[in-house]
Design a protein that fits this description.
- By secondary structure, this protein is an alpha/beta fold.
- The protein is 59% helix and 13% strand.
- The chain is built from 14 helices and eight strands.
- Strand 5, helix 7 and strand 6 form a beta-alpha-beta unit.
- Helix 2 packs across helix 6.
Amino acid sequence: MSESVLNQSESTSRLWPDKVDLFGVQVSCVDYDAALSCIIQAAKSGHAGIVACHAVHAIVTASNDAALRTHVNRFSMITPDGQPVRWALNWLHGTGLTDRVYGPELMLRVCRAAAAEGISIYLYGGSPRVLQMLEKNLRAKVPPLEIAGSEAPPFRPLTDKENEAVCRRINQSGARILMIGLGCPKQDLFAGHNRNRIAAVQLCTGAAFDFHAGVKPTAPLWMQENGLEWIFRLWCEPKRLWRRYLVTNTVFVAKLALAISKHTIRLDRTDRRADDPIHESL
């Protein structure tokens, strides 16, 4: 590898925050300001990257799928989207995070910052109707925002030829930030598969497209702040989401309990070694 490539790789890596392990998934220790700063700085400097906002479902899905986990652990940044994910990082790693980094909120903040910096975005995901409403609402909320392009993919896997064409359209648009709203894990797989094909910062936003388009309601703030958003979403879409939340929430709690138990045992052993006079004299 040439010195110039090495220098570029090192400078790119310094753009992104440190990560900690959560059930085998590397999650970034960030708040909104840090996440936003990294994304905008990368976009302004012409660096590609992948950012995903992972709540409980995404963390559990990646932790149980080795192939998916390989993809997401190579992402530039994974934000703690859900309050339970933030709590887990604080309990296990002492990160001291005071808030989650919620995909829909991060998307809106990125749009505002991109507009202020003259950075164009590209929208990929949703249905044609959702995209139309999303563009309209984003332009109303952020009038200076430049949307370089948008497209709704087919509800089936892309062929290699179609995928190459999508990447080419995104790159030719000049957009420095690509918003992806395909849902988990489809958006993570798309971003990971195209990490060396798409020149923009890819931001996987989950259900943000539907929320900002106004086709799905958001949970009350008090439910979001207390980690209860899943109850609201389950109430809104019980047939589609009951299995997701029944399974993944249970698995998350079990994994967290096991991780806390192991963490406590390690701390106890460390304390006992520190108090052991024989150990201290060695």
